[in-house]
Design a protein that fits this description.
This protein is of the alpha+beta class and 104 residues long. The protein contains 3 helices and 4 strands, in the order βαββααβ. A 4-stranded antiparallel β-sheet has the order 2-3-1-4. The longest helix is centred in the N-terminal third of the chain and has 17 residues, at 19-35. It is globular and about 35 Å long.
Length: 104
């Protein structure tokens, strides 16, 4: 992979309990993510989990990519992101599980 295509990737599993609020959260944070050079990759609504190392339920799995780990950390620490998370994500999501994190 060429040096300019390197990225830091995370996979996350969620138990979403309010699809409307979660969709509003995603709409609100996507421009913030894209401004930092990040993106959502795969985004799956899960009908049935056959096996999981997590004890929590999951009905959503998605991948986010960032240019590097420092950009990921800055994104999640941003005060605008933190407000969106508190306003929309926390009421909408029952549990979160980080499935994988790696550099490509």
């Amino acid at each position: 992979m060429a040096a300019d295509r390197r990225r830091h990737v995370i996979w996350v599993g969620l138990e979403v309990r309010d699809d409307t609020s979660y969709a509003a959260y995603r709409a609100r944070i996507t421009p913030m993510l894209e401004q930092r050079g990040g993106s959502f990759g795969h985004d799956l609504v899960v009908a049935r989990v056959l096996r999981s190392e997590a004890s929590m339920a999951m009905n959503r799995v998605f991948m986010m990519a960032f240019p590097d780990r420092a950009t990921r950390e800055a994104f999640f620490a941003d005060p605008d992101y933190r407000r969106a998370r508190a306003d929309l994500f926390e009421p909408a999501v029952a549990s979160t599980h980080f499935l994988a994190e790696y550099d490509e």
